[in-house]
Amino acid sequence: MSKKKIALACSVCGSRNYTITENLNRVERLEVKKFCRYCNQHTLHRETK
Questions:
Q1: From CA 39, how far away is CA 33, in angstroms rounded?
Q2: What Pfam families does this protein's entry cite (predicted)?
Q3: pLDDT category of residue 2 using cuts at 50, 70 and 90
Q4: Beta bridge partners of 18
Q5: Domains and CATH numbers, the chain
Q6: What is the maximal distance between C-alpha atoms in the chain?
Q7: Between these two residues, 1 and 18, which has the higher pLDDT value?
Q8: pLDDT class for 8, splitting at 50, 70, 90?
Q9: Considering only CA atoms, which of 9, 14, 2, 1 is closest in space to residue 34?
Q10: Which are the contacts of 8, defined by CB distance < 8 A and separation ≥ 6?
Q11: Judging by beta carbons within 10 Å of its beta carbon (0-12, 13-18, 19+), is residue 8 exposed, middle or buried?
């Protein structure tokens, strides 16, 4: 069975910069501060479905 990939979208510009594998144990959406190359700064990235 293949694992689903989920994108992390920048909360400022909305670009989907990072992908992660889906974790079925997590009930809330993941929010991580990561570097956005379009904003050129560290911003909050949220899990998209």
A1: 13
A2: Ribosomal_L33
A3: confident
A4: 8
A5: 5-47 (2.20.28.120)
A6: 37
A7: 18
A8: very high
A9: 9
A10: 16, 17, 18, 19, 20, 30, 32, 34, 45, 46, 47, 48
A11: buried
